[in-house]
Design a protein that fits this description.
Length: 136
């Protein structure tokens, strides 16, 4: 299940993209317009800044802007920043792989195969960019 934090992060990125007029947007405005609790949003901003998805502009007219082209920001990327692996089990994750001690043979594990198929079917959809999401 998509966490609230990831959902809020996606909504924030989408809002920044759709309201981009070359000027930063304050956290307060985003919080109010998207109905995201301000404290929640502060933590999300911190993570997105750390991973260079957002950039801060200081000053009286300061706020947040996208740090890179919205065509290069994917939903999967935002989800990974906020929630970590996309695969439901770590042994199918490409970026957060972990084997399970109780697993005897990953190559013949039917559970791993099933969730690997699930992940591989879902990933192309989540690789949509913010721009593509805005068109839906």
């Amino acid at each position: 299940m998509l966490s609230k934090r990831a959902k809020y992060a996606i909504k924030t990125i989408l809002y920044l993209h759709e309201n981009d007029q070359g000027l930063p947007i304050s956290a307060k405005v985003i919080s109010e317009k998207e109905r995201i609790p301000y404290k929640f949003l502060e933590n999300i901003f911190r993570q997105l800044k750390t991973h260079q998805i957002l950039r801060t502009v200081r000053g009286a007219e300061g706020g947040y802007i996208l740090a890179k082209d919205p065509n290069e920001i994917t939903i999967a990327q935002v989800m990974r920043v906020i929630d970590g692996p996309i695969g439901l089990i770590l042994c199918v994750s490409e970026r957060f792989y972990e084997s399970f001690l109780e697993c005897i043979d990953e190559e013949t594990c039917r559970i791993r195969k099933l969730f690997g198929e699930f992940r591989n079917g879902m990933l192309p959809i989540l690789e949509k960019s913010v721009v593509e999401l805005a068109r839906l």
